[in-house]
Amino acid sequence: MRNNFQNQLKVYDDVDVFLRDIDRYRVATLLFYEIFKDNRKFLTLNVTKFIRAINNTAEEVSLQQVKKAVYLKLLEVFCRYQNKLIR
User: Fold this and answer.
1) SS3 sequence of 17-73
2) What contacts 21, CB < 8 A, 6 or more positions away?
3) Most CB contacts within 10 A, which of 24, 30, 31, 45?
4) For the chain, how big is the Rg over CA atoms in Å?
5) Residue of 24, 31, 20 lying closest to 77 (CA atoms)
6) How confident is the model at residue 2 (pLDDT cuts 50, 70, 90)?
7) Which bin fits 27, alpha (ψ -120 to 50), beta or left (φ > 0)?
8) What is the mean pLDDT of the chain?
9) CB neighbours of 73 closer than 8 A, spacing ≥ 6?
10) H or E element: which one contains 81?
């Protein structure tokens, strides 16, 4: 678990780059998910800009596209910590 946290810290500095490319590259969405998944420290940060950007991107995608579900699943990572609802 410690190693996972260290990896998350290393890529956190570039999170704005991943957020910018979230619509173009599906892997950016998955990477973003892994950065914030079950990371209590990151969840205490002001994540409003991330949530807003993901929400805006999701709103532009039609309901029929799989991307919509992926974005909504990504939003969940900001609401749960170890399967417990936190916000």
Assistant:
1) HHHHCCCCCHHHHHHHHHHHCCCHHHHCCCCHHHHHHHHHHHHCCCCCCHHHHHHHH
2) 28
3) 31
4) 13
5) 31
6) low
7) alpha
8) 82
9) 33
10) strand 80-81
